[in-house]
Amino acid sequence: MTVKDVMDVLGARVLTGEEYLDREVRSACGSDMMSDVLAFSKDHSILLTGLCNPQVIRTAEMLDIVCVIFVRGKKPDETILEMAKERNLVILETGHRMFSACGMLYEAGLHGGAI
């Protein structure tokens, strides 16, 4: 699956990183707690979150996350978007709640993997 596939499944909108939509996605992690993301995320994953602060981008960078999806219609500010641009990170936004978005991606074949 690619970031473009994820975007299509969720009906998401690209906020930055449109040139990287062909990146491969192997798993997903949905959390507003960055400590959980640090503990359970894998390479080439996407992060679904409603947390809109710079720590999200820093966490994504540390874990080689290829895309951050802000759920529940959350809109990151320009500081967060600029940080993402500097790190070549795709940022998407969807109106779906996290539970629904994760379920849609799981149903489409994207899994989180065992703990």
Automatic annotation (TrEMBL):
SUPFAM superfamilies: HprK N-terminal domain-like. Coiled coil: none annotated. Pfam families: DRTGG. Gene3D superfamilies: HprK N-terminal domain-like. Residues 5-105 form the DRTGG domain. InterPro entries: DRTGG, Ser_kin/Pase_Hpr-like_N_sf. This is DRTGG domain-containing protein.
